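tool_call predict_complex ligand=zinc ion
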Amino acid sequence: MGISKNLKGKEKMSQVLALKYRPSTFDKLIGQDSITQTLTAALDQKRLSHAYLFSGLRGSGKTSTARILSKCMVCDQGPTSKPCEVCENCQMANENRHIDIIEMDAASSRKIDDIRALIEQTKYKPNSARFKIFIIDEVHMLTKEAFNALLKTLEEPPEYVKFILATTDPLKLPATILSRTQHFRFKKISKRDIVNHLSHILNLENIEYEQEALEMLSRSGEGSLRDTLTLLDQAIIYSKGFIDAKSVASMIGLLDPQVIDEIFDAILKNNRSKIIEFVQELENYESEIIIDEFIAYLKERFFEEDIRFSSLLTERFFRILSEAKNLLFLNADSGFVLSLVFFKMLEATNIKTIDELINSLEKSTSPIKETKKAIPTPVQKMPKKEPVDCATLYQKLLNSLYDRNFEVGECFKTKVEFVSFQNNELSLISCADEKCKKTLRHASSVIKFLVKDIFGFDTKIKMLPCDKKEEELEKELKEKENKANENSSSMMEDIETKDPSSSSCIASDLSQTKELNGKDILNDPFIQKAKELFNPTRIVIKQKV
Ligand SMILES: [Zn+2]
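tool_result ok
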C-alpha cells in the first residue's frame, strides 16, 4: 500500500496517529458517506468536473479526500474509484510526492504573484499522469486580486488541469468562484463515527481503553477527526498504555465522570451541603467546560432513558444550562454562574408537574387516608402554621399604636373593641367620641399599615358601629367584671385548653361573620372571652379619662 503500510516497529509507533491512519481510499474515509458516494460515481462514470470545492470544518476530511480523489484521477487504471495502489502514479501519490499533484496553501501564498506562478504551471502538460491537479487549501485566504487572476483559468482551464479548492469558510469566497466549481460540503463527523474510529485504531495498536474515555476525547475534538487523533496521541502517552476516563478527564481538564454522577445524585437527593462542597471543589475548573460536560451527561442519560431524569426535569436542566452558557458569553463571573446552575437545578427538582399537582390535590380532598402514603416523592415541607392567638395579636397592635402615637393608642384602647378576626377580616366596634374619631381618622393610614403588618397583608378592617349608650356599656362592663372575678381561670388558659378552632386566628367559620351585628355579637361566646380579656385594661383607662 502506501507509506503507512511499509512502516514497521518503532518507526510505526512514533508516527502521529493522524498521519499514520490518514485514509488512502474512499472506503476508509470517516463520516462523509454521501460525498464519497458522489465522487465514486463521478470517477467510475468518468464524469469529472474541472474544479471542485470542498468546504467544511477543519479535520473533517477535506484534504484527505482531495488527495484520494487526485490519486484516483492519476492512477494508470483510472480515472477510477478503486486505484490500483501499485502503479508508479499511485505510489507517488500515496507518498505525497507526485509531481503532477501540486498542493498550495493559500494561507501562506495568498498574493497575486503566487496565483500567477500557479497559472504559469497550468500551461505545461503533466509529467507522468494524465492530469495536472492543483489542490489549493484555505482558498478563502486569497486576496481579491489573486481571486480575479485565478478566475479565468478556473473557468476554462486546459483539459489536463483539475482544481480542488478547500476551505473552512466558503462564505468568504466570491460568488464567481462558487459558481465555477462543484461544491461539496463536508459535515461535522458524528461522535459515534469518531469513537468507532478511535477504538478501531486502538485495537490495531494493541492499546486498552475505556469506552467512556474515547467519548470524552471525541467530545473535546468537536467533530474534527484530526484534532481528536491528536488528543488520542496525547492520551496514549499520558495514561501510560491504558486509556481510562479518569486520566483522560484530568488530561483535558474535564471532570471525572464519576464526579459528575455524584453531583447529579446530590442534586436529585436535594443534598444542599454536598452541593456546596462541590461548588467549592469546582472552583479550579473552567465553568464552560463543566457546563458542556453536564450537557453531555444529561444527553446520555436522556438517551439511556434513565428513570431518574424525567423529560420534564431534563428540559428544565437543559434550560438552566443554556442560560448559564449565555451568562458566560456575557462575561459573567464564572464561579457565580456555576453556583447559580447548581442551586437552580436544586430548585428545579422541587417543582411539581401538573400531574403531580392534580394528584396531590385529589389526595388532599380524598377521604381515604391510605392513599397519602402512596407517593414518596420528595416534596419540600412547608412549616405548619401555628394557630396564633388573636388576643396576643390585638395586644401587639395596641402596643404598636402606642409606640407610634400615644394619643392614638389611648383612643384605640378606650374606645375601640376587638370583635373577631376571621377570613382576613378584623372586626372592631368603635364607640369613639368626636375627638377620638378625629384622632383615628387622622391616623387611619398608620392603623391600616399596622393591622396589615400584624394580622397579615390581606387583612381588612371592619368597623362596627357602637349601638349602646354610655350607661349601658358601663353597666355591662361592671357585670363582666364581676363575672370575670367569679371565674378564676384566666382567658389565656381558656384559649389554650379549648377547641383550637375557636381561639385560632385562622379559623374559617364563615357563618359567624354574618352574625356579627347588633346585640347578638355580645352573646357570642368568643366575644365574651374577648371582652373579659380586655375588660381589666378598659377599667384602668376609664379611670384616667
Ligand atoms: Zn494506480
